[in-house]
Write a structure and sequence with these properties.
The chain is mainly α and 459 residues long. The chain is 69% helix and 0% strand. It is built from 8 helices and no strands. Helix 2 packs parallel to helix 6 and helix 6 runs antiparallel to helix 8. The relative contact order is 0.11.
């Protein structure tokens, strides 16, 4: 047996070799596992890294949420300003409507007051036509103002509902800002005048922003790409899934788990639409009020001018009546004097009442006449002429008496007509003064249906 040959058994040697190979394979596998672990296993600082990543993600969400809340606060402030403007417009509308109702009450007072004129002066005239036209026009103007007031109130209700939605969204989004003071944004009346003036000054010096998009960053800073909220395409009011696909924001997306949700987008669009509609309604309301004011002033002026013209015409007729009454009185005096002369002439013609008072020269059978009539055919017409003259004088006296009576009737009618004209002129003058005194609407409407006895004395 040679020494090169193995003395040990073959199985014994192979078992040892196999053990060595297995150990070598396990050593190589261990090296690979260590190398892989060095590449992929967590580092000892993994806990801190994960905390930093979580904090960064939370900070990013907080910054984006704060930006959304800031923009919502700006929109809320603009909505509040618009509500204040609409409230002021509503107050002006109510005041204008109250003035028109006072004008309508004054028109009725004018109508009832003119009923105090005498009956002969109550014929339908041009002044009555103007008063009736003013009444119809005031009714139409009141209807227009009521329609505008209803529209303003309805728009106020809509924009107030939108404001409540904005406040609810701001409160909900502000829950993600526990370490940021958010109470200073809604201080309202608690903000002092100096701070408000400084804020308005900074806002006036800053460039204007559009209401059509959520563009811009925090107040006082320039918007960056991460702070820009401008939408690339308009978003229709569609379900959430379609909205998330169509809305694209620079740096932000719209989703239920993101700072900008679909509810916020809808609320913002509703606020912008309500503010735009409120401005249109307010401008329309102010335009209607201006037109109503012009028409009311024109109607009021036309009625007052008509009453003044009627007073002037009445005074002119009254003056003519006074002249005619004076002339009639002069005619009556002349007729009365002439009647007295006729009565004296009648007395002279008829002679004394008693025959004992006749003188010799007045008797029909005086000596010269008796001597003249002693011859036949020498009759004299003296007695017949005296009788005829007396009859003529009686007829003339009756005619003069009748004329005097007619003149007296004419004078009475002229006097009554003059007094009626004077009363009518006084009533119309009272109406003119009443309308001039109440044209500024600085009076309290006490009774809706005025009494005729209190028209000219009420202030």
């Amino acid at each position: 047996m040679s020494l090169a040959e193995s003395i040990g058994p073959r199985q014994w040697r192979e078992a040892s070799v196999k053990t060595v190979k297995v150990a070598q394979a396990l050593a190589e596998q261990g090296d690979v596992t260590c190398h892989t672990g060095r590449m992929y296993d967590p580092l000892p600082t993994g806990r801190e890294v994960l905390a930093l990543q979580s904090n960064e993600r939370a900070h990013q969400y907080t910054r984006e949420t704060r930006e959304v809340v800031t923009r919502l606060h700006k929109v809320l402030q603009e909505v509040s300003d618009e509500i204040r403007n609409m409230t002021r417009c509503k107050q002006v509308l109510e005041k204008s409507l109250a003035h028109r109702r006072k004008d309508l009450h004054l028109n009725r007072q004018t109508t009832v007051g003119r009923q105090q004129r005498p009956k002969r002066e109550q014929d339908y005239d041009g002044a009555d036509s103007l008063i009736e036209s003013e009444f119809l026009q005031l009714k139409e103007l009141i209807i227009q103002l009521e329609v505008q007031l209803h529209a303003v109130k309805e728009q106020l209700h809509h924009i107030h509902t939108t404001r409540l939605r904005l406040m609810a969204n701001i409160q909900e989004r502000s829950q993600a800002l526990p370490h940021i003071c958010i109470h200073g944004w809604d201080r309202g009346p608690q903000v002092d005048t100096v701070s408000r003036a400084r804020r308005h000054k900074r806002a006036a010096s800053a460039p204007p922003t559009s209401h059509g998009s959520l563009t811009g960053g925090v107040r006082g800073s320039r918007p960056t790409s991460s702070q820009s909220f401008s939408r690339t395409t308009p978003v229709p009011r569609t379900p959430a899934a379609s909205r998330e696909r169509s809305v694209t924001l620079a740096g932000l997306g719209v989703g239920s788990t993101k700072p900008l949700t679909g509810e916020i987008v809808d609320c913002y669009e509703a606020a912008v639409m309500d503010m735009r509609t409120a401005r249109q309604v307010r401008e329309q309301a102010y335009g209607v009020m201006d037109n109503v004011e012009v028409l009311q002033q024109a109607a009021h002026r036309s009625v007052s001018d008509g009453l003044i013209q009627k007073v002037a015409e009445t005074v002119t007729l009254k003056q003519h009546l006074q002249l005619s009454e004076a002339e009639t009185r002069q005619s009556m005096n002349r007729a009365r004097r002439w009647l007295e002369q006729q009565e004296k002439t009648q007395g002279y013609t008829m002679g004394p009442v008693s025959s004992a008072d006749l003188t010799s020269r007045e008797k029909l059978d005086r000596p010269i006449i008796r001597a003249y009539q002693s011859h036949p055919g020498h009759g004299l017409p003296e007695a017949r002429e005296l009788v005829r003259n007396s009859r003529i004088l009686d007829d003339s006296m009756r005619q003069t008496t009748r004329s005097l009576g007619l003149l007296r009737l004419a004078k009475d009618k002229l006097e009554v007509d003059r007094r009626d004209k004077q009363r009518a002129a006084n009533v119309d003058s009272d109406m003119v003064r009443l309308r001039r005194r109440r044209a500024n609407h600085r009076w309290v409407q006490t009774n809706p249906t005025p009494k005729p006895s209190t028209i000219t004395t009420s202030h």
